[in-house]
Amino acid sequence: MTLVGSTEDYSITSNVVPEFGRPISRQDVDHNRAVCVIGWEVANNLFKKENPIGKRIKLGAYKFRVVGVLEKRGSLFGQNLDTEVVIPIGVFQKIYGSRRWMTIEVKVKSPDQVDKAKDELIGILRRVRKVGPGEDNDFAINQQDMIADMYKRLTTALYAVAFGVGAIALVVGGIGIMNILLVSITERTREIGIRKALGAKKRDILWQFLIESLVVSGIGGVLGILLGFLAAKGISSATSLVASVSLSSAMIGIVFIGMVGLFFGIYPAYKASKLDPIESLRYE
Questions:
Q1: Would you give the DSSP letter of residue 136?
Q2: CB 80 within 8 A of CB 1
Q3: Separation of alpha carbons 65 and 257, rounded Å
């Protein structure tokens, strides 16, 4: 759980509104009322199917009355935003002191005013923190687009690595399937000869081994997808990270698995279809 001390502007600057109840009000802040707005997951864990509005929760040695429940937001950079509990800033400072890590959130009316507001904020903070001329800022200003760009770069790199690992795994798996079929052809040479002697055509033998290749790759792929679902569920249960496997991803995976089975099964199937039936019947 993350405890946040804030003003009545928290909903505006954080761009989040209560799904039930109301946000922290100006009166709550001015009068240091022992009220709180809780995250969706906190409400779900503490109250299950009960209505949490008006109920009291204990934060340390102090009791707070729940006035609102924030809408579900998910996670950002591994931090679960649904475990936040927001209380008036004055109450927070009274209980936990004022010399703590602090962020100031500012929202401008128009994107055109961002640069102007940033320059103004730097000037104000330098005066307040007594940063002398020529000295570096001892604070940082982050914009949402900066965070979005960093997230995009991070996820792009992760996707590239995941794609590379997945491609290598598909090639290795495909080579394994091809080797299995080649060994199977060697062991079943006489069987292939008998089938051809009884009238089986080249395309019949070709399709037989192509289907076997698809079946082998399909079984491995389905098992891998099931393990992926189980791993995602285990990670979500054991950690605060949200992990899931979408149905669309699973379907795309099945298509790729089929393509790999078909591609790496072509050569063994073609080799089996070209076997001479007389030589095959003589094979021991």
A1: P
A2: no
A3: 54
Q: What angle do CA 122, 127, 128 make, to 5 degrees?
A: 100
Contacts of 157 (CB under 8 A, 6+ apart): none
Length of the chain: 284
| pLDDT tens, residue order, the chain (284 aa) | 788 888 888 888 787 888 889 999 999 999 999 999 999 889 988 988 789 999 999 988 889 999 999 988 877 666 778 888 999 999 998 888 876 666 777 777 777 777 787 888 788 878 887 888 878 887 777 766 656 666 677 778 888 888 888 888 888 888 988 998 888 888 888 888 888 888 888 888 889 889 988 898 888 888 888 988 888 888 777 765 667 778 888 888 888 888 888 898 898 888 888 888 777 776 66
Integer Cα distance of 86 and 92 in angstroms:
9
Domain boundaries, the chain: 2-107, 109-141, 145-282
Q: Which helix (H) or strand (E) holds 223?
A: helix 202-238
Burial state string for 184-218 with b = 16 or more CB within 10 A and e = fewer than 16: bbeebbeebbebbeeebeeeebbebbbebbbebbe
* Rounded CA separation 59/85 (Å): 9
| Cβ pair 254, 214 in contact under 8 A | no
The CA-to-CA distance between both ends of the chain, in Å, stands at: 71
Strands 35-38 and 62-70: parallel
Question: Do the Cβ atoms of 206 and 272 come closer than 8 Å?
Answer: yes
DSSP code at position 83: G
Does residue 119 contact residue 110 with C-beta atoms inside 8 Å? Answer: no
